[in-house]
Design brief:
CATH topology of the largest domain: D-Maltodextrin-Binding Protein, domain 2
CATH class of the largest domain: Alpha Beta
Number of helices: 9
Keywords: Lipoprotein, Membrane, Palmitate, Signal
Helix content: 25-40%
Subcellular location: Membrane
Mean pLDDT: 90
CATH architecture of the largest domain: 3-Layer(aba) Sandwich
Family: Belongs to the nlpA lipoprotein family.
Main location: membrane
Strand order of the largest sheet: 2-1-3-12-4-13
Shape: globular
Strand content: 15-25%
Number of domains: 2
Low-confidence stretches: 1-7
Largest sheet: 6 strands, mixed
CATH superfamily of the largest domain: Periplasmic binding protein-like II
Protein name: Lipoprotein
Structural class: alpha/beta
């Protein structure tokens, strides 16, 4: 009986190893920090064969690639954005892991603090609904505007029409997220997603005039796959690696507060 169990366990281990080596796991990711984190995972876990498909700014939607089967997973988005995408695409995806938080930041080439925002200042914000709402809440948190109470900030999205107090008559300029860093010279300030800020050479923890708090932050970046792959041994292993203390330490040391491991935040 003991020999039989031993043979069974040995066979199971061999099956898992064969599955991990059967085919590369194709994963779409933004270049910074997502692809960099995945490259580190590949370094510490060479048994897991990853084919990292880096997504350039704009262009192809990683969720469309995932839905069509062109990739097996993606790593670039938070849950409110994913839910919005599921509605838009008419698809259902599965979250395999919550990995890190990229605090949204307010940046400017023209002012040194938010108190210096001039009357009628223009602020560029992402034009997709979840990050637009997130940006408006950040402006409210920093005392720039006030929004009407719409309940849960994540499940109930707000728009500029929900601004009830705007003492400096701020103008909200909606731009595609990847293009916002290029617009910094054309506006008084801009709200930029962490990955695009890093790609533009900004250091969120140092350069942002206002930064989203990581405590209880609901915008963790996710490893996402299709429902039929959520129990794939390769997905399970990648999720385990991405949420490991070793990867958390790498994120901490490489990004120095600009990217924060979920395990090190007070995320619920």
């Amino acid at each position: 009986m003991i020999k039989s169990v031993a043979f069974t366990l040995a066979g199971l281990s061999l099956l898992i190893a064969q599955t991990l080596h059967a085919a590369p796991l194709r994963i779409a990711a933004d270049p910074i920090p997502h692809a960099e984190i995945l490259e580190y995972v590949q370094k510490i876990d060479p048994q897991l064969d990853l084919k990292i498909v880096e997504m350039s700014s704009g262009g192809i939607n990683p969720n469309e690639l995932l839905a069509s089967g062109d990739v097996d997973a993606n790593y670039f988005q938070h849950l409110p954005y994913l839910k919005d995408q599921e509605k838009a695409l008419g698809k259902t995806f599965s979250v395999a892991a919550e990995v890190h938080i990229e605090p949204l930041g307010i940046y400017s080439h023209k002012i040194k603090s938010l108190a210096d925002l001039p009357e009628g200042a223009s602020i560029a914000v992402p034009n997709n609904a979840p990050n637009l709402s997130r940006s408006l809440h950040l402006l409210q948190d920093k005392g720039v505007i006030k929004l009407k109470d719409t309940g849960n900030a994540v499940t109930t999205l707000v728009t500029p029409e929900d601004i009830v107090d705007n003492p400096k008559k701020i103008k909200i300029v909606q731009i595609e997220s990847p293009q916002i860093p290029r617009a910094l010279d054309d506006v008084d300030a801009a709200i930029i997603n962490g990955n695009y800020a890093l790609e533009a050479g900004l250091v969120p923890a140092k350069d942002a005039l206002g930064l989203e708090s990581a405590d209880h932050n609901p915008y963790a970046n996710l490893l996402v796959t299709r429902p039929e792959l959520v129990k794939d041994p390769r997905i399970i292993q990648l999720a385990k690696d991405l949420t490991s203390p070793q990867v958390a330490k790498f994120i901490q040391e490489k990004y120095n507060g600009s990217v924060i491991p979920v395990a090190n935040s007070q995320h619920d």
